[in-house]
Amino acid sequence: MEPKRRALWLGGALAAAIAIAVWSWSDSSAPAAASPNRTTRTAAAQGGTGPEDTGPVDVNLDALKAGRNAPQDGRRNPFRFGGRDAASGPTVPAPAVGAPQEVAPTPPGGPPPLPPIALKFIGVIERSDGTKVAILAGPSYTLYGQEGQTVDGRYRLLTIGVESLEIAHLDGSGRQTIRLTGQ
Fold first, then answer.
1. Is residue 136 within 8 Å of residue 120, measured between CB atoms?
2. Percentage of the chain surpassing pLDDT 90?
3. Beta bridge partners of 132
4. H runs (alpha helix) in the chain
5. What whole-number distance in Å separates Cα of residue 170 and Cα of residue 156?
6. Which segments within the chain are labelled E, that is strand?
7. What is the DSSP letter of 50?
8. Across the strands, what pairs with 137?
């Protein structure tokens, strides 16, 4: 084949491929309600044979207006199939609707509790004279202290034991026992 003719065939094939791509893209981007395939499928799913069976649906308005039974005692198990179990225990009467219920005021709880002391008890050093020195770890520092001393400017070491120590806030607002394993 001549080069001119070959280029003409390739151009025609490329144009046909573009036309097919545009046609399939425009077909898939059409609204779903306008698609005849979708109408036929929904009519077939409703029991009809095609789009000609899409008439009005009968609705029983009297059944919608009918009252419903009120719940008996307010207890039910949504995970149990069937009726309520009779052996589930005594029923508690539901409070009367519309009756005001008196609620006793709760007394104020006072100030919120202090946060726990954020020091960790690392170990104990016992000097030759028998005094014990506790080693404590803070967030980014290490502290040393004996019984009765102030530590970190906020706490007082009360007692130092073998596996734990008792520490209190300087203002006397609370105390905590810290075990050797950390908190």
1. yes
2. 23
3. 126
4. 3-28, 36-45, 61-65
5. 6
6. 120-126, 132-137, 142-145, 150-151, 155-160, 164-169, 175-179
7. S
8. 120, 142
- Cα separation, 137 vs 53, in Å, equals 81
- Specify whether the CB–CB gap between 169 and 175 falls below 8 A: yes
What are the tokens at 66? Answer: 């009918």
126 contacts 132 by C-beta, under 8 angstroms: yes
| Residue 172, pLDDT score | 82
The Cα–Cα gap between 141 and 34 comes to: 73
Cβ atoms of 177 and 166 within 8 Å: the answer is yes
Query: What residue ranges do the domains of the chain occupy?
Result: 1-51, 120-179
Residues 6 or more apart from 105 whose CB is under 8 A from it?
none
Distance CA 134, CA 146 (A): 6
Question: Judging by beta carbons within 10 Å of its beta carbon (0-12, 13-18, 19+), is residue 135 exposed, middle or buried?
Answer: middle
Determine the 3-state secondary structure of 18 from DSSP: helix
- Residue 160 — φ and ψ, nearest 5°? -120, 120
CA–CA distance, 170 with 155 (Å, rounded to integer):
5
pLDDT digits (tens, 9 = 90+) for 76-111: 777 877 665 555 555 566 666 666 667 777 777 777
> Rounded to two decimals, what is the model's pTM?
0.39
Q: In terms of DSSP bridges, do strands 150-151 and 132-137 run parallel, antiparallel, or are they unpaired?
A: unpaired
Q: How far apart are CA 169 and CA 156, in angstroms?
A: 6
